[in-house]
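User: Could you go from structure to sequence for me? I need the amino acid at each position, not a summary. C-alpha cells:
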C-alpha cells in the first residue's frame, strides 16, 4: 500500500473542477470509487493521488506539493495518497494501482508522466488524470485527461535578462535537469534573454540529466565558476541544490527555480523562476465553471499569472528591476517574442 500523505492546496480546486465534469457526464452523480479503500472511508470523500518524480524536500518542484499538506488536511473530506521518487519505469504501474483502488483524480507532477497517463486513461474512463507538464502529443481528445503546459520559457527569458544585466564577467552558468523539451526550452530562452540585454554575455549551460543528484549539480556549477561564471541559474530541483551550494561557497550570484529560494542564500539569490501550480489549478477551475474550459491542453504563462519571478529581496537595483518590467511588458504585448525551442 502506498504511503498515505496529503497533497497541495491547489489540488482541491482541480479535484472539485474535474469531479463537476464527471458528475455532468453521469446524470449529475459523481462516479463512486470501488474496492477496499472506498469501503474504509466516507462515500463523500474525494480521493486524490499524487505521483512525484522526486523528493518532497527538494525545495523546488516537488516541495510545492508538500507545502499544501496542512492546508488540505484542514479542508476535510479527502482521502489522499502520494508517492515520491517514482522512477520512469514505474509510472504506469503507479497510475494503474491508484486507478484500481478507486481514486477519483490522479495527478502526475511532471512531463515524464504524460505518456504513461495517455496509455492508462482509456482503461479507466471513470478516473480523472491531470498532468502538470508539457504533453507528449499535439492534441489530447480523451475526456478524462488534461495537461497544463506551463510556458516556463517566458520566465526563463526574464531570468536570462536579469543575469545579462547583473553579470560583471559576461560569463553566466546554467545548470538544468533532465534533457526533456521543457528543460531545453528553458535553457535556450535563458540564453536568449541574457543576450537580448547583453550581446557579450556567454552562457555555460548544461542539462545534467537528473533532478535528484546534488553532487552532480555542484560539480557542474563548480566547473562553470572555474570558467569565469559570476552568476549561476539552477533549474534542476534537488540537483540544483548542489549548484546553489557551489555558488554559495564561491560567493557567486544565483537565480533559483520552483519556489522563492531566497532563504537558502539571502545575499546571493537574485530571483527565482516560479511556475505557480496552485494558481494554475484555480484558474483552470474557473474556466470549467464558466463553461469555456479548453479540453486537453492549457498553455499558461506570464499573461495568466502562472509564470513569474520571485521577489528580488533587494539584491537587484531599481534600474535593473525597471528594465525587467519593461521586457515583461514587451512579452505580454507581443513586441518581444521569446524563442520556444524544444530541440538542441
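Assistant: Here is the amino acid at each position, in order:
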Amino acid at each position: 500500500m502506498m504511503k498515505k500523505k496529503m497533497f497541495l492546496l491547489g489540488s482541491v480546486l482541480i479535484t472539485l473542477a474535474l469531479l463537476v465534469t464527471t458528475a455532468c457526464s453521469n446524470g449529475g452523480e459523481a462516479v463512486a470509487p470501488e474496492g477496499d479503500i472506498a469501503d474504509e472511508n466516507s462515500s463523500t470523500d474525494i480521493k486524490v493521488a499524487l505521483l512525484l518524480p522526486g523528493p518532497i524536500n527538494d525545495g523546488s518542484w516537488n516541495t510545492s506539493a508538500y507545502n499544501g499538506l496542512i492546508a488540505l488536511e484542514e479542508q476535510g473530506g479527502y482521502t489522499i495518497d502520494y508517492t515520491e521518487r517514482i522512477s520512469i519505469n514505474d509510472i504506469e504501474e503507479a497510475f494503474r494501482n491508484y486507478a484500481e483502488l478507486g481514486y477519483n483524480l490522479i495527478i502526475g507532477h511532471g512531463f515524464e508522466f504524460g505518456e504513461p497517463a495517455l496509455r492508462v486513461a482509456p482503461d479507466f474512463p471513470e478516473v480523472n488524470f491531470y498532468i502538470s507538464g508539457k504533453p507528449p502529443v499535439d492534441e489530447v481528445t480523451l475526456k478524462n485527461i488534461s495537461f497544463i503546459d506551463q510556458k516556463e520559457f517566458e520566465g526563463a527569458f526574464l531570468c536570462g535578462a536579469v543575469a545579462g544585466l547583473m553579470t560583471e564577467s559576461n560569463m553566466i552558468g546554467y545548470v538544468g535537469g533532465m534533457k526533456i523539451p521543457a528543460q531545453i526550452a528553458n535553457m535556450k530562452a535563458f540564453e536568449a534573454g541574457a543576450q537580448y540585454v547583453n550581446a557579450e554575455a556567454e552562457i555555460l549551460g548544461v542539462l545534467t540529466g537528473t533532478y535528484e543528484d546534488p553532487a552532480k549539480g555542484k560539480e557542474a556549477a563548480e566547473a562553470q565558476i572555474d570558467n569565469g561564471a559570476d552568476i549561476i541559474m539552477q533549474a534542476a530541483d534537488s540537483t540544483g541544490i548542489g549548484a546553489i551550494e557551489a555558488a554559495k561557497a564561491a560567493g557567486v550570484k544565483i537565480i533559483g527555480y520552483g519556489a522563492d529560494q531566497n532563504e537558502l542564500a539571502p545575499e546571493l539569490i537574485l530571483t527565482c523562476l516560479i511556475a505557480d501550480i496552485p494558481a494554475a489549478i484555480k484558474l483552470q477551475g474557473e474556466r470549467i465553471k464558466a463553461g469555456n474550459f479548453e479540453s486537453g491542453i492549457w498553455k499558461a504563462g506570464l499573461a495568466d499569472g502562472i509564470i513569474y519571478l520571485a521577489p528580488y529581496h533587494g539584491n537587484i537595483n531599481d534600474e535593473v528591476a525597471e528594465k525587467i518590467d519593461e521586457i515583461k511588458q514587451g512579452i505580454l504585448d507581443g513586441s518581444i517574442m521569446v524563442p520556444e525551442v524544444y530541440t538542441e
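One structural detail worth keeping in mind: The two ends are 41 Å apart (CA to CA).
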